[in-house]
Amino acid sequence: AVYGVRGANGVILINTRRGFDGPAKIDARYEQGFSFASKRLSFVDAATRSMLYNEAIDATAGASVANKFSEAEIEAMRTQSDPELYPDVDWQKLLMKDVSFSEKVSANISGGGKFARYFTALSFYNQDGQYKLNPGQYDWVPSEIGQYGKNINYKRYNFRTNVDMDITTTTVVSVGLQGNVIENTTPFGDSGEITNGSNNIYRDIINAAPNAMPVLFKDGKLAARDGLNNPYNMLTQRGFAQTMENALRANLTVDQDLKFITEGLTAKLVYAYDYHNTTVEERSRGINFFQATG
Predict the structure, then answer these.
(1) 180 forms bridges with which residues in the sheet?
(2) Could you tell me which residues are beta bridge partners of residue 241?
(3) Using one digit for the tens of pLDDT, what is the confidence trace for 156-180?
(4) What Å distances lie between residue 290 and 33, 206, 285, CA to CA?
(5) Residue 274, φ and ψ in degrees, nearest 5
(6) What pTM was estimated for this model as a whole?
(7) Which of 128, 101, 124 is nearest to 32 (CA)?
(8) Which of 18, 57, 127, 237 is 20 to 30 A from residue 141's alpha carbon, by CA?
(9) Is 251 exposed, middle or buried (0-12, 13-18, 19+ CB in 10 A)?
(10) Is residue 5 over pLDDT 80?
(11) ∠196-211-215 over CA atoms, to 5°?
(12) Do 166 and 172 meet the contact criterion of CB atoms below 8 Å apart?
């Protein structure tokens, strides 16, 4: 079968834009979009959380009052007199953008002459991710993600070209090429789940309490706790994955008018070639972290 085994149940033929006999016509377009969360989760600050924690201990039979936060500790969280020992981190504000942007640039050129006609389309699409460092009061924290982490990013390059050539008065040769290159970047997020890194980082952001750990110690040491990830570490220190996809589709068509044999008789020769390649590069590393005890 001309369209392969899967074409037995029918196919859909799509005619893409072609060139024309006339001077070159160029069209260009630029588009920009933005996205944002329709709603963000709201969390209390460290001092409020600690007071509620104390109330929960008082209301729980058998709970040890030794686990309660002292008034001095709660005041230190409120005033941020020692942000390394008594942190108050708004993880969403620290690591996430309010708005993410995307852009698309496209251009078309078409035209031709008596014996050949052409159409070419090019486009580029770029979409940024939702993560960004906003150190704010933590002036010892870098404002860039750095070499050991990556934000989400998606890039796509597309091209298409169609050329129709009148080889003779009865023979038309058409060549079509269409291809795209996709580059998709994601942060690592967590060991063993690099393809789901962005989801894991957001999970860590909403799981980390404001007083669980500082963002980063002032001497540059990484902060975390056993059993609880520091989302800053997951975004900036654990690595990233980059996926490259390349696709090329080509078709060659020869239309031959056989009216010299009998009026209305034609023949068509069609050849198609598809190529697709995917490459995944994963980079990850283990880290050592520290916990302030006093």
Answers:
(1) 158, 247
(2) 186, 282
(3) 999 999 999 999 989 999 999 999 9
(4) 41, 21, 17
(5) -120, 135
(6) 0.81
(7) 101
(8) 127
(9) middle
(10) no
(11) 55
(12) yes
The Cα 209–Cα 261 span in angstroms is: 84
**Helix pair 46-58, 71-79: axis angle to 10 deg:** 160
Residues in the chain: 294
Helix, coil or strand: residue 101: strand
Longest dimension (CA), the chain: 103
Residue type, position 138, single letter = Y
Name 32's bridge partners: 103
The string over 150-175, giving b where at least 16 C-beta atoms fall within 10 Å of a residue's C-beta and e elsewhere, is bbbebebebebbbbbeeeeeeebbbe
| Tokens representing residue 138 in the block | 């933590």
Retrieve residue 145's tokens.
């993600």
In this prediction, residue 284 carries a pLDDT of 87
Angstrom distance (rounded) from CA 185 to CA 124: 16
Region of 10 on the Ramachandran plot (φ > 0 left; ψ -120 to 50 alpha; else beta)? left
Distance between CA atoms of 25 and 41, rounded to whole angstroms?
50
Using the structure block, give the residue that is written with the tokens 């630029």. Answer: 30
Tokens of 254: 């020869």
| pLDDT tops 80 at residue 20 | no
pLDDT digits (tens, 9 = 90+) for 237-261: 999 999 999 999 999 999 999 988 8
Round the CA-based radius of gyration of the chain to a whole number and report it: 30
- Residue 122: both structure tokens together: 């090019």
